[in-house]
Structures
1.
Amino acid sequence: MRRKLLLGNWKMNKLISEAKEFALASHELADLATKSNIDLGVAPTFLSLQAVKEAANKNMIVAAQNCHYLPNGAYTGEVSIPMLKELGISWCIIGHSERRTYDNETNEKCNLKIKALIENEMVPVYCVGETLAQFEAGETKKVVGEQVRNGLKDLTAEQVKNLVVAYEPVWSIGTGKNASSEIAENICGFIRDILKEMFGKVSEEIRILYGGSVKPVNVKEYLSCPNVDGALVGGASLKIDSYKELVTNIL
Ligand code: PEP
């Protein structure tokens, strides 16, 4: 039985003070989520990680939004995995479409990062998804299939058992144009089939999230799909009230 997971991606939002205020306000909700067998988390900016980790309930997952695959070196502006670990961070989003679009994050680079995270016993949340042009050209499965196969290349079943995959159609991120639950289920099921081909039985344990304009009003519909184990949420995770509603609406 896969536990449901809701992860808020705050992107480049919130000052440290605002992130801390959110964390302090989320304690009761984190307890409720735990009691209800839901894993709950947020991914603040690097600068706010420490404040959120310290202020939040210990059950709240605090994830980074990116990392470098090398432990140190001459990489200006980057943050390494040991630096995250020093703060007690053990989750990290990899390959978000905004990083693929603006920062040239390739499947190969994602693969290096995922391997480095797993070697460090951290949980990667690997994002995949097609652009609008690819969706309209009927290339979703081709694109997502390549992202999954190349991003998870050379890993073993043992290594991927804690990994999370997030299917986020790029055309639905921050646009209010969410994919239907039929599309979400179809592609999340397709991802699980590839994971089965690559890693066998462990594919049944790997959590697959849907992301893209998930709101309190539609979250339950997505999470009712058999292959959708949770949601990666941007906009609706920024305000404590809508974040709370995301949780209470799936109970
Ligand atoms: C995201 O940033 O991963 C995302 C899904 O954003 P939004 O929920 O705002 O579409």
2.
Amino acid sequence: MLRPQTSPTRELVNLDGSWRFAVDWDRRGLADGWQSAPLEGRLEAPVPGSVNDLFHDERIRDHVGYYWYQREVRVPRGWDGERILIRLESATHEGTVFVDDRKVAEHRGGYLPFEADITEHVAAGETFRLSIAVNNELTNASIPPGEIVEHEDGRRTQEYKHDFFNYAGLHRSVWLYSRPAAHVEDITVVTDRDGSSGTVDYRVETSGGSGDAEVSVRVLDEAGKEVAQGSDASGTLSIPDVTLWQPGAGYLYRLVVELRSDGQLADSYSQSFGVRTVEVRGKQVLINGEPFYFTGFGMHEDHETLGKGHSDAHMIQDFQLLEWINANSLRTSHYPYSEDIMDYCDRHGIVVIDETAAVGLNWAIAGGIMGGEEGGTFEPGHVDDSTAASHRREIEELIARDKNRPAVVLWSIANEPDTAVDAARDYFEPLVRLTRELDPSRPVGFVNVMFAPAGRCTVSDLFDVLMINRYYGWYVQPGDLVSAEQSLEKELRGWDEYGKPVIMTEYGADTVAGLHSIYGQPFTEDYQVSFLDMYHRVFDRVECMIGEHVWNFADFQTKYGYARVDGNKKGAFTRDRRPKAAARALKRRWADKLGR
Ligand code: BDP
């Protein structure tokens, strides 16, 4: 799925700003056709942004169901004869889009883009009323899953297994764009190396054209110089003296795809890509043939006021801190991140483990850490066929969005599912197969939970790279780093026997900024430092360990629970991005590790 852009044949209008806003308290909006008139009331909400932390009325924060957004949009007058599309970068977790009275799109899955062709319902130069009903409900048919509890007094509350606040709204930009009727529909680029040359396998799909439409492609380097060209809809190009996309040094070429009809330019789209290879060999992940060691974090899109809303200022601050601390990579825990963040990683050489929103597929943890009901994970009403169908769609849409990104070196198709049981294998086998079919060029992984240790996990052998989250010294053996060190080493030696590369994708300790002790006391900054040091000593002793992603980059908001004081405090930075002592310790550790 191509990200909209301006080109010689395409135009783009950004629809962000303050929109009319209303809460559908009684779930009447869709039936009563709220799209057909201006929304009642005087509330406004920002796009992009989460709705939850904005209003003084706490019921809005806690509402389970639909929020409505609305604004007027004028179609540029020059767009006559073009196809006109509306694109939402996300609607969390479900979006229904109306142009005036008419429904034009409906999409489930809160972290991936969707669009609709609205040409038949609008006119160049005229205005229309754009309404979007956003539903924040999580059920066993959604990814991530959740459960809505209907109380005797009529209240509805949302439960879910994952450990981050269920922020909702229009978290990313909304666009109106024009595209020619005959157009480039999709582009796939896969790169390789051949000595000092880069090879570029490309495939272009077109749509809406007549039979005689012709595709041509040119590759431009960062200076805009043409370095290769082709005259078919698919083929292999060679870039002599290629500049590789490298960790820490992103370099992007552009594949300019042109579609001609009767010799006239019908459409033009410029797809950026980087030339790099990824490969798993033995216990290593090789990028461009070199062993890569991951330093960095599992992150969250999470900020004061904005919730999960995207902001360029916050994004750039986060990336500056990542650079400062010597992080070379991140995991998009626990959902696909905004396309702006992904573009930044492509441009700057930040290595990404790209994760679906399949988090909380685990009824076994629920009774443990996070509190909640028990019962089997893979059973009707919990994780069942409807969950699997959504999970498949998540994988398809994520790969469709991110397949051309050089930054993405590994797919993570789930975080901490219940893989201590046999049923997990039946659930995951087809999903792994699907991921490989959709993208044979990248390794596939998932993130393993501590309750399915080496030897007990029923699915690890299906994957190329093992990712594990461990909390020895925190949830297990809290405050006892001596025992924790022994347990951790014992388990990692078990994983080493799988003969695959292993990344520690989470390890961390809740830490209250400013709290200190001369003793090894949990929650202090000192304990966080000792805890991380202990893990690092162990990693350095075990061959299969090829990466360390601390949990988490920054403190973040969670649902309420006795184990959370104003959220999860495992950040190396506070929620407002001030460093804890651990941040400086990590900066030193990663400088050493990366030889900087
Ligand atoms: C892991 C989860 C992560 C949590 C973390 C924690 O993957 O989302 O926030 O533990 O408890 O289980 O801090």
